[in-house]
């Protein structure tokens, strides 16, 4: 795998470690099962407790948006862009009327077939999401919920904008939910121990204003900026991290220095 593709091990490993903690935030048993099965050098990932908690909690918030959308739209199409080895279909269990697609680069999709257990599999699409044609195979007459966890940092701002334009043009309506990066969190991603393995692959410069995508495409409307520091699950964080996030929750600009999940409708 290329370093960009290889980045999937970091988030996968964080979800597995969350599952092994006494009080998991996400509790993704299949991620843990995959990690136990694969012969991969997880030590070199340098995960930290803080990163594990943030990765688990952002996945939970993205899952919640997707689940609510599917409950309201049982005819929906679901997409996970840059799905890696994520097991979202098993966590949110879409009904058979929903078509869920896990999208990633060809090497990852090919490996996913062998690595992800059947109970977490959905349709797959092998594609570079910056390619203009990959959406052609998907229905155009059904509402769509589009998730992306850990992808945004690998796309240039123009690529992300063009991707949003294509999704909005393709589907009649839908929602987008992904973890966002401010300029500060991009700087941290480039310099911290936990994300050092992917630092050189980061193309996104960061986005400090969650309303910025509304200016890229007038069809897009911000539903919510979810600041991790203000989520109720912080109560389950270990004492020092809990105290830090409780304090930072008092300030929006401080909270934006941490993990955030952006949710839009179109
Ligand atoms: C940090 S990993 C996250 C994987 C998964 N979403 C998760 O949470 O475990 C980023 C993923 O994005 C994929 N990716 C990066 N650039 C991509 C692109 N242009 N098109 C499709 N997938 C891409 C990588 O192959 C990788 O699987």
UniProtKB/TrEMBL annotation:
Q: Which InterPro entries match?
A: Ppm1/Ppm2/Tcmp (IPR007213), SAM-dependent_MTases_sf (IPR029063), TcmP-like (IPR016874)
The protein's matches in SUPFAM superfamilies, at most eight in alphabetical order, are given as: S-adenosyl-L-methionine-dependent methyltransferases (SSF53335)
Q: Which Pfam families match?
A: LCM
Identify the keywords attached in UniProt to this record, alphabetized: Methyltransferase, Transferase
> MF terms per GO, please?
methyltransferase activity
Is Methyltransferase included in the keywords of this UniProt record?
yes
One annotated GO biological process: methylation
Name listed for the protein in its UniProt record: Class I SAM-dependent methyltransferase
């Amino acid at each position: 795998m290329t370093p960009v593709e290889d980045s999937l091990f970091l988030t996968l490993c964080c979800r597995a470690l969350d599952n092994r903690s006494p009080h998991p935030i996400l509790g993704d048993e299949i991620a843990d099962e995959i990690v136990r099965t694969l012969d991969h050098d997880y030590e070199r990932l340098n995960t930290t407790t803080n990163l594990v908690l943030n990765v688990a909690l952002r996945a939970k918030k993205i899952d919640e948006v997707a689940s609510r959308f599917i409950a309201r739209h049982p005819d929906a199409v679901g997409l996970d862009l840059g799905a890696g080895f994520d097991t979202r279909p098993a966590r949110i269990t879409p009904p058979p009327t929903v078509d869920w697609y896990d999208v990633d680069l060809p090497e990852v999709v090919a490996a996913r077939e062998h690595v992800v257990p059947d109970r977490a599999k959905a349709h797959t699409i092998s594609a570079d999401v910056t390619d203009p044609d990959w959406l052609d195979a998907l229905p155009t007459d059904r509402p769509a919920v589009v998730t992306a966890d850990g992808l945004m940092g690998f796309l240039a701002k123009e690529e992300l904008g063009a991707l949003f334009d294509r999704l909005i043009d393709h589907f009649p309506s839908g929602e987008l939910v992904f973890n966002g990066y401010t300029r500060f969190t991009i700087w941290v991603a480039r310099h911290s121990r936990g994300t050092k393995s992917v630092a050189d692959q980061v193309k996104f410069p960061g986005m400090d204003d969650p309303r910025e995508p509304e200016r890229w495409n007038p069809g897009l409307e911000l539903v919510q900026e979810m600041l991790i520091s203000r989520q109720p699950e912080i109560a389950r964080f270990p004492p020092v991290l809990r105290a830090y996030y409780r304090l930072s929750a008092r300030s929006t600009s401080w909270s934006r220095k941490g993990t955030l999940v952006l949710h839009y409708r179109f």
